[in-house]
Description:
The chain is of the alpha/beta class and 333 residues long. The chain folds into two domains: 4-131 and 255-284, 3-Layer(aba) Sandwich (Rossmann fold); 135-253 and 287-315, Rossmann fold, CATH 3.40.50. It has ten helices and eleven strands. The chain has helices at 4-20, 45-59, 73-85, 99-108, 135-148, 163-179, 196-208, 221-228, 256-268, 301-315; strands at 32-37, 63-68, 90-94, 113-117, 127-130, 153-158, 184-189, 213-216, 231-236, 247-253, 287-289. It has a six-stranded mixed sheet with strand order 7-6-8-9-10-11, sandwiched between helices. A five-stranded parallel sheet has the order 2-1-3-4-5, with helices on both faces. The protein is globular, with a radius of gyration of 22 Å. The model is unreliable at 1-28 (pLDDT under 50).
Amino acid sequence: MVTRRGWLRAGLLAAIVLAGVSGAPAVAQNKLKVAAIYTVPIEQQWVSRIHKALNAAKDRGEIEYVFSEKVANADYERVMREYAEKGNTLIVGESFAVEAAARKVAKDYPKVSFLMGSSGKPQAPNFSVFDNYIQEPAYLTGMVAGGMTKSNKIGMVGGYPIPEVNRLMHAFMAGAKEVNPKVQFYVTFIGSWFDPPKAKEAAFAMVEKGADILYAERFGVSDAAKEKGKLAIGNVIDTQPQYPDTVVSSALWNMEPTIERAIKAVKSGSFKAEDYGPYSMMKYKGSELSPYGTFDAKVPKELKDKVAAKEKAILEGKFVVKIDDREPKGTAK
């Protein structure tokens, strides 16, 4: 006869076997414990999309979610270790400036799954990477900007010239040139991921030189455009509700497909080191062109038709946006 104690013993043995299979990251029972580590405030556009996706999973009852924001690079390794020690099954973050430290922590906790924003490659067995591969909608917003500019000069303000930013700027510039070969660009990097006043000043300088549309890769640029009566193109999030007369359109990043895939993998015990970057692309709904909204009647129909046709071509695989990770250079004088 099978006793209650026998069932409990069998269940315990099964759990031990599952947790130790092939040294794979541990499988959480019931809700996953997930921690995120951010070097900037959660209001910052890039981080806000990760935070939004994780909160959505929390609201669905799939995970328990805790996070730390504004973590200094020097403290990043310590915070990662603390979350790993507290039993978090999945740790999400951005390791761009702390690659060596983050990868070291992952090696020390092989049964914890790590999903990190990174310019590097996956690291077996448990360090996966992701990126905001939103160059496709960035190309489309470039088309919008190229068709809307009257001075043929566009200002572009970025954080740092790293691949993740460079490819978006190049895609934007290529899109603008497709509809307007005469367009020229001012390009400035402010050396910060979150310094709205500095980004605003850089944008002001471009307006003084004749730019009538600003590419807002960083917060602060749309404020400059609003104050000077110019137009702006958004990046990662849709800020048109805050700037209804300024932001024409935006290249949106949706982190949900990446997060949902990672959670599913951890739950099934199949999480492994891989590149999640492609799940930010349009065909996976990881990115999209925002609606024109308040500018729907202000963007010429001919231009909207061109953008819609290019969007269709991208989704059907008939047009591939070139990835160029080199630092972009300005062409305007």
